[in-house]
Amino acid sequence: MADPKRVQRVAEQMKKDIADIVDNELKDPRIGMASITQVQLSRDLRHARVCVSVFGDARARQDTMAALSGAIGYIRREVGQRLGLRFAPEIVFHLDSSLEEGARVLELINREMEKGDSL
Domain residue spans in the chain? Predict the structure, then answer.
């Protein structure tokens, strides 16, 4: 098992590397405006849960996630080479909707504040 600080450092580097690969190397037109928000890495560095936030409607999210899932082999190989690990982690993409939820809450707060100003 790896040291927890090392696991965190590797996860942060994976986040940067995957974001770079998605932004600059994947040419799939289905990939929309996607951001890698978090990488959760197992203590043995064998499994990675990659959280992805996608800007757009449900169709854009679905298409982006399908394209990323289809490119897992390429992304895994690239990440393994960049990190220089003995074993490249298994990658699973998960849709992170926290940004959309935050924007919705902010919009509701702004509406309530506007109602308060008109009283």
Answer: 4-117
